[in-house]
Q: What sequence folds into this?
């Protein structure tokens, strides 16, 4: 598809979705759980992934179309066919870094999630309900962004041989749960973006290489971190510094508490969820307004 064809296709998909699933109300778009679309040929799994059992909501047809419309003016020459290849949707806040694997959260019982987390549903009922809500809310457009998808080679420990081996990773993968330094914490990710954009000494050399490999995208933000923040609707992270400060400070602590009780764990989850909903509300409003102006 060229740009005009991409615009028409994406607008058509969003118009149909808003009419069919949201009763014509665009305000519900950024709150919709895209994770429920895995069986939808029209809005869910892209054709090239239909034979796979896994489903990435941030790479669904609906997410690709919405993210294309949000970013097409920001990224010169972008077409719909570039998404899923040269660019990819990415989920910002995930449960893996603090609360455990998603399947454990969904299949919670005394032998999986709650027992391993050291949280008692009878004693922390309100917190457990908040976690249930988060599991429905984190696969929403307000929690997704579009990033470049070029890969670099990094060394990762093979969990079977325990040896370090070369492994190709994209930005989406590197800032995710497989990375020992990022693990989907947005404060770490944004600080590393700032260091590289502003030519500061970069502590993470692998990320520096990854940043350079994706320079075709980041060059336009050179020495202007605020422009990057504004373009991706990340302003909430800096307008509410008391909420977002130190999200990853107890990084190792947070991994340990997945397997045993630890003081302060419930408070850490509360802080994480507060930060998520502040960000989600802010970005949801910005993305909805932008799409409303396009559609």
A:
């Amino acid at each position: 598809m060229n740009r005009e064809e991409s615009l028409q296709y994406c607008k058509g998909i969003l118009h149909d979705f808003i009419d069919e699933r949201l009763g014509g109300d665009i305000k519900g778009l950024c709150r919709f759980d895209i994770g429920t679309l895995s069986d939808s040929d029209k809005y869910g799994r892209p054709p090239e992934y239909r034979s796979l059992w896994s489903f990435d909501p941030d790479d669904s047809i609906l997410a690709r179309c919405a993210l294309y419309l949000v970013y097409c003016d920001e990224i010169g020459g972008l077409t719909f066919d570039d998404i899923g290849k040269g660019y990819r949707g990415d989920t910002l806040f995930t449960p893996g870094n603090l609360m455990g694997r998603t399947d454990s959260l969904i299949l919670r019982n005394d032998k999986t999630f709650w027992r391993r987390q050291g949280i008692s549903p009878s004693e922390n009922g309100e917190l457990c309900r908040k976690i249930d809500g988060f599991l429905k809310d984190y696969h929403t457009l307000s929690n997704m962004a579009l990033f470049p998808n070029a890969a670099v080679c990094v060394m990762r420990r093979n969990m079977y041989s325990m040896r370090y081996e070369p492994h190709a990773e994209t930005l989406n993968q590197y800032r995710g749960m497989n990375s020992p330094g990022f693990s989907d914490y947005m404060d770490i990710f944004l600080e590393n973006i700032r260091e590289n954009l502003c030519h500061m000494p970069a502590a993470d050399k692998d990320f520096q290489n990854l940043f350079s490999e994706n320079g075709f995208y980041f060059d336009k933000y050179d020495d202007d971190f605020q422009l990057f923040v504004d373009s991706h609707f990340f302003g909430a992270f800096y307008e509410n510094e008391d909420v977002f400060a130190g999200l990853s400070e107890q990084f190792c602590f947070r991994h340990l508490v997945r397997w045993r009780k630890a003081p302060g764990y419930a408070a850490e989850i509360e802080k994480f969820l507060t930060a998520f909903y502040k960000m989600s509300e802010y970005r949801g409003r910005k993305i909805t307004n932008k799409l409303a102006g396009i559609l």
In short: Residues 265-294 form the longest helix (30 residues). Residues 105-112, 251-260 have pLDDT under 50 and may be disordered. The radius of gyration is 19 Å. Residues 148 and 215 are 9 Å apart (CA to CA).
